[in-house]
Every structure is written in C-alpha cells, then in structure tokens.
Automatic annotation (TrEMBL):
One of its GO terms (molecular function) is oxidoreductase activity, acting on paired donors, with incorporation or reduction of molecular oxygen. PROSITE patterns: CYTOCHROME_P450. Coiled coil: none annotated. InterPro entries: Cyt_P450, Cyt_P450_B, Cyt_P450_CS, Cyt_P450_sf. SUPFAM superfamilies: Cytochrome P450 (SSF48264). GO terms for biological process: antibiotic biosynthetic process. Belongs to the cytochrome P450 family. This is Cytochrome P450. The lineage of its organism: Bacteria, Bacillati, Actinomycetota, Actinomycetes, Micromonosporales. Keywords: Heme, Iron, Metal-binding, Monooxygenase, Oxidoreductase.
Amino acid sequence: MTQDVREDYADPAFQADPHPMYAQWRATTPVRRVRLPSGVTAWLVTRYDDARQALTDPRLSKALPVGQATDNALPPPIGAAVSRHMLAADPPDHTRLRRLVSGAFTARRIEALRPRIEEITDDLLAAMAGRDRVDLIDAFAFPLPIQVICELLGVPAADRDSFRTWSNTIVAGSANREQLPGALQAMVTYIRQLIAERRAHPGDDLLSGLIGVRDEQDRLSEDELSSMVFLLLIAGHETTVNLIGNGAWLLLDQRERWDRLRAEPALLPGAIEEFLRFEGPVETATFRVATEDLEIGGTTVQAGDPVLVALLAADRDDARFPDPGELRLDRAQNPHLAFGHGIHYCLGAPLARLEAQIAFGKLLARFPGLRLAVPAHELTWRPGVLIRGLQSLPVVPGPAAPA
Ligand code: HEM
C-alpha cells in the first residue's frame, strides 16, 4: 500500500455522524487507507462509480482470508462452522450455495408471506397501544424481521433474545473484541443443536429443506449448512431492524416528513428506497481481498490488500445523486447501493422491502401522533463499521387509531 494510514475512522464523532467525513474523503482521497478499530488496515472506497466497480470486480475475492484480521483468530472448528457461507465464497461455490436458497427468496415467494407479516406487525403495534413511552427498536423494529426470518427458517422465536445479544456482538466485531469469541461459540452451539433437533423432527421450513439437501443429495457440507443458517440469522437480525429504525428516526426528526407520508401513502415505496440511500443499514460492505494488483479510482491496490466499500458514502455521492444530502421522499431516480451490487447483491432485498412497507404503512396509520421521546441529539448509534443503526429510539406512541 502506498498512502499513509489515517486514523479518523475510529473517531467517536465519526460514529455519531460519518457523513461530513465521507464527503471530505470522496473529494480528497476517494480510495484511502483506513485503520479499523480492530487494527485491520484496509482500502476504503467512497465514490459511487468506484464502489459499483469494486462490488463487481472478480479480482476482489470474498473467499480469501483478511490477513491481518484479529477477528478471524478463532478456534478452527468454530471459524469453519460460521464462515463457509455464500457471502464468503467466490464462484463456483458461491453460485452453488446461493442457488440452494434463492428459490425461497424470490419476489413471488416473499409476497406470499404478506398476510403473516401483517399479522405479526398488527400484534406488535397492538402491544404498543396505551403505553406512555416505548423503545421503537425493542418493541417493533427488532422483533418484526426476527420473527419473520425465524418462522421462515424454522427457528423457535422464543430464543431470539439470546441470539440478539450474540449477533449484536458479532457484527460489532472488533468494537466488542473481548466478547466476540464467546458470542461466536454460543451461536455455533445453538445452531448445531437446532440442526440436530430439526434432523430428528423435520418440518416444511427452510432449515429442514437444507438438511435434506445436505443429507440426501450431499450438495452441502455440515459446515456450509451451519454457516448458511448463521448468515441468514445474522442478516435477518441486523439489517431490516435498522431500515425501520433509521427510517422512523428520519421521519420523526423532521415531522413534516411524517405528515407528508401520512397524507400521501403512495410515496411509501419510494420513501423506503430513499431511507436506504440516505441512511442505509449497511455502512460498509463486507471485506473483499485483491487477488492481484489492480486499480480502483486511479489508486493501486496490491494483491492481498483488503478492500471495504463504503456504501453509505457512495450513496451520497453528488456525481450520481442530485442534492445527495437532502432526503427526498419523492426522489425519482434512486439506484442506491444499500443492498450491494453484483453477484452478492442482497438475497433478502424483496423480504426487507416488503417488511418495511408493511411496517411503515401500519405504523403511520396506527399511531398518527407518534413522536420522539428524547431530543434527537441524545440518540446514540451502534459501534462498528459494518452496521449503521440506532442503539434505541424512545418514542411516545400517542393515541392509537383503530387497527
Ligand atoms: C434492509 C435490509 C437489508 C440490507 C440493507 C441488506 C444489505 C445487504 C448487502 C449490502 C449485501 C452485500 C454485502 C457485500 O457485498 O459485501 C447483502 C448480502 C446478503 N443479504 Fe442482505 N440486507 C438486508 C436484509 C437481508 C435479509 C432480511 C436477508 C435474509 C433473510 C438478507 C440476506 C442476505 C444474504 C444471504 C446476502 C449474501 C448474498 C450473496 O453473497 O450472494 N439480507 N445484504
């Protein structure tokens, strides 16, 4: 690597609001070396065009280990049980692993879940009615997607609080370095028990289907099976919660947005795309590693160097989006990168979009007077560089309209 390492990425002010820093980096050092809180040094890609190119460049591998990553220092059996998944694979393994589950995530299959998602949403909102104050993350944004992914996979939702803790620790990565091995160990033990139980008592859920593929057709190894469950649980836990949380915050922080969406519900699908662009749940895509020397945006990246694409920065690039720092509920063109791009484009995008449409549609209708319970500057953001989401979102629900 040729540039100096900059330390700004670990600055607490950056965690609170990374956008001014990203704007500066896009303008001055669009592909820059950063040292992450874990101690890993990586290239951070911040411009839209460079980001799209990097996300599709086959010379940036998802399968190679990130050499200096301290987070990877796990006992090998545990590491293998969580890391043999499609997001850590290149073709042809990636193609095989993704194909095994893609049928369950098509727009048509996801649309069939609508009545059940509506039911879960209604129940959660009913439980908020009559309360003086609730944390919208705990009461709504978290349980909704988790209940859905648990039912889809065939995981008992009763266990969700335990794996919320493990999962939060895992995605915070180095920000929670001491707890990380314990959380991974607990998650692996849990997933292995789950697989054993479902093997003994199969159902018609996704997990039972995957166990069948493993046992009968031998197209999946045991580590690939546990890693698939791990990936889907983590993806189901850590992402949509923050689309709902970040979107709700954006609407409540400037109340006229909330009122406008109530008055013009047809804007909702586009507004959700704008939440994804403006304050998407995935701050940086996962690590890629250069398999050979290559150029990104005129900067030479050497073979073996880790590369991170800052989706949040790319999606505010004024070379691609007019007035990118303005949240426009009716933005016409919105080719954001919040779900990634290329072969690793988010498998769960149709599910996340449907959940968000139902969640916001019903929240706006049921609690017309919902408002923040604390001043916006008191809200804090989750640590780590992967996820952009609020720690909590205290709100006053106000009177509930009839369901
Ligand atoms: C708003 C919610 C979501 C956002 C913003 C999001 C974002 C992303 C992004 C950016 C990637 C690509 C990462 C990379 O290339 O490094 C990705 C991949 C993936 N996501 Fe999502 N995701 C969301 C919800 C979900 C849900 C609900 C699921 C599943 C239940 C899911 C499953 C996956 C899987 C399996 C991959 C890996 C795909 C592959 O490697 O081919 N995601 N997601």
